[in-house]
Amino acid sequence: MTALETWELRAEFARRLSVMYGQEVPAYNTLVDVSTEVNEAYVAKQGAEAERLGSISRVTAERHGAIRVGSPKEMAQVARIFAAFGMYPVGFYDLRDASSSSVPVVSTAFRPIDSNELARNPFRVFTSMLAAEDPRFFDCDLRAELAKFIGARQLFGEDLLNLADKAAADAGLDQDDAERLLDLATAAFELSGDPVDYEWYNKLEAISAVASDIGGVSTTHINHLTPRVLDIDDLYERMQARGITMIDEIQGPPRWDGPDVLLRQTSFRALGENRVFRYADGSTNEGELRVRFGEVEARGIALTVSGRDLYDRMVAESDARLAEAPLGTTRVEAAAGVWAENLPRTEKELALQGLAYFTYGLDEGQLGQTPLAGPVTLADLVEAGIAVPEPIVYEDFLPRSAAGIFQSNLTEEGSKDEAQAGTNYDIHRMSTIVGTKVHDPNDLYQRQQEDSIASLAQRLNVSITN
Predict the structure, then answer these.
(1) Among 46, 58, 358, 465, which has the highest number of CB atoms less than 10 A from its own CB?
(2) EC number(s) (predicted)?
(3) Which residues does residue 301 pair with via DSSP β-bridges, in sequence order?
């Protein structure tokens, strides 16, 4: 019986979720169609240069999903499910203080960590867990109620979890088991028709709409699925031209005439969806919830630790300028000037200044013009044109941008008691929660870069220093 390898399971899982979500949120299909139009137009205009950050086939097929769970137990179960698809936790994101709205979650992203696996299918799922222990959001009584409600539900059945463990252990499944796993995994993230307890949901919604979406319902669901585009500004304009209401601005770095770095994101606003509510007297009636939206992303070059430090300083400077700018100035407008003043305008300069991650190819034509003897520096090889920097794509997320997307789709600010001390979460605690190491994205990018430099040194038969 034909077996499906891990990457094939992952690709099919992403495809099935996309079909399901398109049926639940038809505007998502419009977003995918427009994304395809944008990518095709960009390639037609830019040619081969358009694929510098990924082939058009990869970019067009690329998705990231987002889900929300309520407890460490549920988070650990999610980790088992995604391991079946070769997706492992990468990065820690604390959204609790990343926006002015009440967003009481901490997150990680499950994705492939090997570059070859990413090239085959780069599906990611940004997974948020309710920080239900944080007293700034939930008082003692509400924490107890949340623990009881979330503890009583079962998001993922034992059959699904056992099949996931088998797939992870065997790096794939036979056809019958694969079909069963895919059916169960997809269904686990389908929007439920179960009635929603009106009073309980509203009680949590007063704290945060994100909290009610996690802890106010009996199941989890795909919150959004995100296609990738090569020109997010063009997509934003095309979506508005189709009459679809977008959030106010594109999150992340501004548009400018230098290299694209990190991640830019935007979305259409959350749409009203019919749900059944159960009231205190036992009666039920239809109502509407607005919790799911359509997000899109444009990915740039991964920045080094030094590059991220510069990025954080530029964000802070952009905020300061915006605070002093004339009324009507947007964040993007304030940031564009800061970017032009501080960030190198070429990939080569990013590489030479150690601000971004690259793999390094060899230009043998230049090699013949520059004899090598003894140890050489990477910078010397780049300057001579012998080592050719090829950008490593940023595969991860930005806490402020994620929180900005969440905030832009909330109707109310929610509430937070700043007099209380927040509960401590970090990447180490998240590793304990999910039951496996949460990878630091910088370690993954650094390893990819170092492997490339080592391969180049071997080809040149020289020692390369930084």
Answers:
(1) 358
(2) 1.13.11.93
(3) 261, 393
Alpha carbon distance 37, 60 (integer Å): 10
Q: Among positive and negative, which fits the CA dihedral 166, 172, 176, 181? A: positive
Q: Taking Cα atoms as reference points, which of 7, 9, 3, 33 lies closest to residue 294?
A: 33
3-state secondary structure of 270: coil
Q: Is residue 308 packed enough to be buried (19+ CB in 10 Å), middle (13-18) or exposed (0-12)?
A: middle
Specify if 203 maps to a domain: yes
Query: What is the rounded distance in angstroms from the CA atom of residue 91 to the CA atom of residue 87?
Result: 13
Q: What is the Cα 416 distance to its own chain's centre? A: 25
Q: How far is CA 300 from the centre of its chain?
A: 13
Helix (H) or strand (E) holding 265: strand 263-268
**DSSP-derived secondary structure letter, 156:** S
Distance from C-alpha of 96 to C-alpha of 396, rounded to nearest angstrom: 18
CATH code: domain of residue 259: 3.10.180.80
Chain position carrying tokens 């930084």 = 466
Within-domain flag for 250: yes
Q: Residue 17 — pLDDT band, cuts 50, 70, 90?
A: very high
- Domain limits at 193? 3-302+392-435
Q: Phi first, then psi: what are they for 224, rounded to 5°? A: -160, 155
Position 320 in a domain: no
Length of the chain as a residue count:
466
Numbers of helices and strands, H then E, in the chain: 19, 16
Residue 292 neighbours by CB under 8 Å, 6+ apart: 24, 25, 191, 221, 222, 223, 224, 270, 271, 273
Q: Is 206 helix (H, G, I), strand (E, B) or coil?
A: coil
Q: How far apart are CA 28 and CA 86, in angstroms?
A: 25
- Whether residue 36 has pLDDT greater than 90: yes
What's the pLDDT tens digit per position in 380-427? 999 989 999 999 999 999 887 776 666 655 556 667 777 788 889 999
Q: Give the integer Cα–Cα distance in Å for 394 and 380.
A: 26
DSSP letter assigned to residue 47: G
Determine whether 21 is exposed, middle or buried from the number of CB atoms within 10 Å of its CB (0-12, 13-18, 19+).
buried
pLDDT tens for each residue of 151-188: 999 999 999 999 999 999 999 999 999 999 999 999 99
357 lies in some domain: no
Q: Where are the beta strands (DSSP E) in 70-160?
A: 88-94, 105-111, 124-130
117: its two tokens: 């696996």
Report residue 57's pLDDT band, with 50, 70 and 90 as the boundaries. Answer: confident
Contact at 8 Å (CB) between 208 and 214?
no
DSSP strand pairing (358-362 vs 387-391): antiparallel
DSSP label at residue 293: -
- For the record, the structure tokens of 356 come out as 């971004």
- Mean pLDDT, rounded, of the chain: 90
